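Journal club side-thread
Mid-discussion, someone asked how the predicted structure for our own chain would compare to the paper's figures. Pasting it here so we can look after the session.
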Amino acid sequence: MASLSSRVLAISRPVTLSIASSLLLIDLAVILYGVFMRYLAGGAPIWTDELARFLIIGSVLLGAGAVWIEGGHMRVALIESLLPPRLCQVLNLYQWLLTLSLAIAGTVISYRYALSVSMFTSQGLGVSRTIPMFSLPIGFALLTWHAFWYGPAPLKTLTEDTA
């Protein structure tokens, strides 16, 4: 199981990070286009602000699961270093179950929300609000996916090298 989970993560992590990075690159292009149009051409289309907002939200949510498994998110790991090994294992199991529970709940709730706003259209883009809102359940589902395959192992911590 350990080799299967590491292979799954070795494939899904770079894919989700690549998609999230692509969304950030597109977001940068949209923002630069909006700035160019606003300050050099005299007025930006209304859709640039809205699209930039949706792209940044989507990129953050899509990358959250991959960042979670590599320990790149903000957290305090002091308690883990102070506990004896057996209690640390219990804490890791608790953290994993809590993360899975919250990610599954976030997936279900945000999926229902995304469907509930289908009758509304966005002001700038003129598309159903369901389309950009689907980044929420997709992001939470990817967090669930990555957390599930990572398992209740200790989360990595980022350390500062003092060389």
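Post-session note: The chain is about 70% helix and 0% strand.
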